[in-house]
Structures are given as structure tokens and as C-alpha cells.
Write a structure and sequence with these properties.
This protein is of the alpha/beta class and 346 residues long. It has nine helices and nine strands. The protein starts with 24 loop residues before the first strand and ends with a helix. 44% of the residues are buried. The chain is globular. It has a single domain, classed as Alpha/Beta hydrolase fold, catalytic domain (Rossmann fold, 3-Layer(aba) Sandwich), CATH 3.40.50. It has a nine-stranded mixed sheet, sandwiched between helices. Strand 1 and strand 2 form a beta hairpin.
């Protein structure tokens, strides 16, 4: 599939302007991509905005028409945003209307006033934009089922949201979801206690520690990777960790460890190997350099009663940004799973 080229991200603005109320506007990614702003006023961090992106190739409604299988909502990970046009085109080819959400203080939703990109001290804050996106999508495409897709922290956010709110979601696709702290619960529990103590006095306190750019190196075309990513929206060094943010992440991990009891089909996709190190290694192009995939697969069993594990040989942390042939395998396996759950509905 040959895709329209996107303008190089170095030509994009650092911060976007909000779209007119309830209006779609062209996206910096260029042809076939549109975006619109959800404006929730202000919170303690400044403008409370989120941005919904949709894949809209010429004649997209007519192309899908009666063969439309559903709608997909994709959510990125920490220090991330939607940039993968190929992923959108894949879902469209499967018969799904594709949407992606840049959460508040991430990507297109960042503004100059935001002093702490990505910051929340409660993951349920994101319910507001997820539900706004869901309402808009289902209004645009009534009666079509919805599939949710989350990468890394986005996978944790979606899993907790579904468990908490029981929305009308048909299936959940998790791309290397962050379901447990690296080092297992034996480290998470005491560190969570420390974060809880700090949060009582200063939840916005930045946590000092080593900073690594090896995942950016494996991903960005300015490093050793293949993807053109925005310098502020997918920065070389991740957004700063804060006590309040890490505390709510650990609380999410603890809930997963107890079991979420999800009733819908869940696909958990990971690499087959982990290589976490202090510096970049070429091996990181072919394994997960961010989370422990064995831990992830263990925790995945706690998500619900219908969980499918998919191990993609040679994949990176985001399996859909991996070098070939791993990326093709990831799409092949996802397509097979979608056909499987589609057959089960008939």
C-alpha cells in the first residue's frame, strides 16, 4: 500500500492552535488526516484540551459504506502522540473508521502554557476526552461496534477505563501495554509508598533520575529508526516523571494485579524479547527496550476471561513501528485476530 507522504515534522509548529468549535481541520500530517479539538476549559495545569484525529482518505465514507466493520479509537503512550499513517490505513483496509486521540498535554494537545507535559495525578482524568471521542465517533457512525486500541501507558489507561465505566466497547487491542512496573510488584509497592508521601505535599515534584534516549534512537529517523517524529511531541528524552503521575501509574498497576475482570475479547501484542539498558544498542531495533515483555504477558492474564497473547518476533516496544519483517507480522496477526472475533459475532 503506497501512502501519501506527510510533510516533515520539522516543518510543523511546536504548538497547534485549537480548531473552531465542532469543526474538523487539516492536520500537519498532511493528506487524508484531519483533527479537531475538544476544549474542556482550564484545569490546574492550564488549557485542558484533547485532540481527536481521523483518517479520511478521499471518498472514505463511500469506500467503507455497507462493508464497514466498526470504528477504532487508538490511544498513544507516554511522551507520545499519533503519527503512524500506516496504522490508520491498515484499519481502514480492514473495514474500520479510524480515529486516534492525543490526550491532554500530549502531542497536538500540548500548549506553551503547559509546564509539565503529559501530567495528571489521576488516570481517570482522561475519561473526559475518551468519552468525548467515543460519543463523537458513535454519532458519526451509528450502530457500528467500537474497538479500542492502546499502546504502552495508553493500554493501561484504556484497560482501567473499560473496567471502571463498562463502556460499549466490542474488543480491546493492547500494543505492549504497561501493566506492571519494571522490576515487579516487589519494587512497585515500596516506591508507591514513597510517591504517596511526596504527593501529599507536592504531587508536581519532578523526580530526578537517569535519562535515556535509547528508545528514541531506535524509533526516530534522526537516530537509528525509520519514523519522522515531532521533536516536542515525541521528544528525545521522555517527559519528566513527577510524584503524582507515578503514584497514579502504580495504583493502576496494582488494580491490574488484582484483576480487572474485563468481559470483552482482549488482544495483547508484545515483542518476543526485552533488552533494557542504559545506552542504545543495535539490538534494541529488534526487541522491547522499555517494558519487560514476560511481566506483561503474566499480568495480561489478570485483564479478563478472554485474553489472547500475541508474541511478535523481532518487534520493538511499539510493535507497529518495528522494522520489517516484524511489522508485517504484527499486522498479519492483528488482521487474523480481527477476523476471528468477527466470525464469533456471526
Amino acid at each position: 500500500m503506497k501512502l501519501p507522504l506527510s510533510p516533515a515534522s520539522e516543518t510543523w509548529p511546536d504548538y497547534l492552535s485549537s480548531t473552531a468549535a465542532e469543526q474538523w481541520a487539516p492536520d500537519p500530517m498532511g493528506p487524508d488526516i484531519e483533527q479537531r479539538t475538544f476544549d474542556f476549559g482550564f484545569d490546574d495545569e492550564g488549557p485542558a484540551l484533547a485532540t481527536l484525529v481521523r483518517y479520511s482518505p478521499a471518498g472514505w465514507r463511500q469506500q467503507l459504506g455497507r462493508r464497514a466493520q466498526g470504528i477504532v479509537l487508538s490511544i498513544h503512550g507516554w511522551s507520545d502522540y499519533f503519527y503512524n499513517r500506516e496504522l490508520a490505513a491498515f484499519w481502514h483496509a480492514q473495514g474500520y473508521h479510524f480515529y486516534a486521540l492525543d490526550l491532554r498535554r500530549h502531542g497536538r494537545s500540548l500548549r506553551a502554557e503547559h509546564q509539565l507535559p503529559g501530567y495528571v495525578d489521576d488516570l481517570s482524568v482522561f475519561d473526559q476526552e475518551i468519552e468525548a471521542a467515543l460519543n463523537l465517533m458513535t454519532a458519526e457512525h451509528p450502530r457500528l461496534p467500537v474497538v479500542a486500541q492502546g499502546h504502552s501507558t495508553g493500554g493501561l489507561i484504556l484497560s482501567l477505563w473499560i473496567a471502571r465505566t463498562q463502556p460499549r466497547i466490542q474488543a480491546l487491542v493492547l500494543n505492549s501495554p504497561w501493566l506492571e512496573f519494571q522490576g515487579t510488584a516487589f519494587l512497585r509497592i515500596p516506591i508507591h509508598g514513597l510517591m504517596e508521601a511526596i504527593t501529599r505535599t507536592n504531587p508536581r515534584r519532578k523526580l530526578m533520575g537517569p535519562e535515556f534516549d535509547h528508545y528514541w534512537q531506535s524509533l526516530s529517523s534522526q537516530g537509528q529508526g525509520q519514523w519522522d517524529v515531532h521533536r516536542l511531541w515525541r521528544p528525545r528524552l521522555a517527559f519528566p516523571n513527577t510524584a503524582g503521575w507515578l503514584k497514579t501509574i502504580f495504583e493502576g498497576h496494582a488494580m491490574v494485579a488484582k484483576g480487572l475482570g474485563l468481559k470483552l475479547p482482549v488482544l495483547v501484542m508484545t515483542s518476543d524479547r526485552t533488552h533494557i539498558g542504559a545506552s542504545y544498542s543495535p539490538d534494541m531495533q529488534h526487541c522491547d527496550s522499555v517494558i519487560d515483555v514476560q511481566q506483561t504477558r503474566t499480568r495480561a492474564a489478570k485483564l479478563g476471561s478472554f485474553v489472547t497473547l500475541c508474541e511478535v518476533s523481532g518487534a520493538m516496544h511499539d510493535v507497529f513501528t518495528s522494522a520489517e519483517p516484524a511489522r508485517a507480522l504484527a499486522y498479519q496477526d492483528l488482521g487474523l485476530w480481527l477476523r476471528m472475533i468477527g466470525s464469533s459475532r456471526k
